Amino acid sequence: MLQRFSLEHDEWLLVMYNERRRWVPCYLKPYFWAGMSTTQRSESMNAFFDGYVHSKTSLKRFVDQYGRALRNKVEKEFQANGNSLSKMIPCVTSFAMEKQVQHVYTLAKFKEFQTQLLDQLYCYVLPSIDGSTFEVRENRVINGFDKSSNFIVEYDNSTSKGMCS
């Protein structure tokens, strides 16, 4: 492509190519994103910068606004921590883990944890196929109908990484 557009000597493109290991991985699929699609990742970044930058923001203004966005995020987290000390959401299970988390997470994170905890109750791990490959079955009732989904999870013990299909 560089030859096609006569850009073989473009210094910026050469630097970007040589530094590709630093920026290319964010565009590749094998990396774990907790089930988030590319669109969701982009939307979460857009939400972070919403109200601070737009498509015509200069680099200097972007840096200033980035600092402002980070400070705002820290302030919100500080406020959430304060709210968590004065309010308590009841546990939805009798798991000791939930009780422990109730005392250390913010209200918002605890609600998120509870949702994930309840979701895992619908999943069943079937006996390992070969010691590193597992089948996970999720059974749910959606709009009055039973829905079952099967996932294959491969775990690489040497790298401590898992992949889900």
Automatic annotation (TrEMBL):
GO terms for biological process: regulation of DNA-templated transcription. One of its GO terms (cellular component) is nucleus. Its main location: nucleus. InterPro entries: FHY3/FAR1 (IPR031052). The keyword Zinc applies. The keyword Metal-binding applies. GO terms for molecular function: zinc ion binding. It is found in: Nucleus. Keywords: Metal-binding, Nucleus, Zinc, Zinc-finger. Belongs to the FHY3/FAR1 family. Putative transcription activator involved in regulating light control of development. This is Protein FAR1-RELATED SEQUENCE.
